[in-house]
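User: I'm putting together notes for a lab meeting next week and I want to include a structural view of one of the chains we've been expressing. I don't have a solved structure, so I'd like a prediction I can at least talk through. The sequence is below, exactly as it appears in our construct file.
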Amino acid sequence: MKNSNNFYRLDELRAISFFSTSLYMKESVEEVLWAITKNVVHQLGFVDCVIYEFNQKEKLLMQRAAYGQKNPSDTVIYNQIAIPLGQGIVGNVANNRESVLVKDTSKDPRYIVDDENRLSEICVPIIVNDKLFGVIDSEHPRKHFFSERHLHLLTIVAALCAQRIKELGNPTKKQFTRADSYFKKLEYLVQIEKAYRNPNLSLSSMAEMLDISACYLSSMLNATIKRSFIDYINEYRVTDVKKNLRKREYEHYTIVSVGLEAGFNSKSAFYKAFKKHTGITPTQFREKSASTLGNLER
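Assistant: Thanks for the context. Below is the predicted structure for the 298-residue chain, given as structure tokens.
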């Protein structure tokens, strides 16, 4: 039993760490909300998650992000609804600013059916600067599914969400420039030392090399070159790939091996980044380069 409790704490810490790290990479409130709904399902084992944003003027809670049955594709919300402040379980949680765990919704008169009837619900408010921002809500078809542990974890997630939204609304006052000593060191590590070729390179590991926090590095890149860390690094990797795919000595290399040599850690990540930065696939690029080279030789 003691070991079981230890694993319980470890799982909890991992989930909290995951949310804390992933939200730092989000650069808009919309990205934060969609990331939370998706990761609440994957990290906490829920079947769905919906985030409502409070419309102060109309006193309505509007569905802004969802994952599960409510989210058939991309950022689409099926049967998007709005709940008046004070109505339903969501509306009551928003009005009272207090979390609620409902073990049996069939016995709770406040329950409002959305896409389908479910038998348990958990609901936590998101408070930003002492004002109601919205509510994180999840339902489950089984009675008594949600536990106090779930409530504790979701409350922490709501706090992390609020903190990131607050940061996005109040960007750092520090004025970053390309002359910044840390940016110069970063450019040296990437351009000269070819740090991007390390497939395990991450925001945290690069920040450690620079002796700054991951948050500082992310803010510096966003303010200086308007890009995320992964886009910044992948741009160098894609440039490397393009250069090598044009070389005769790489003709017998598979396209994937060229991508892995540039620092990508999987075929899917390589192809996705290459298409994002060039508009075409690596295969199309190689064919185009071969055709151009052939025309020049004739």
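A couple of points you could mention at the meeting. Residues 2-24 form the longest helix (23 residues). The mean pLDDT is 88.

User: Perfect, that's what I needed.
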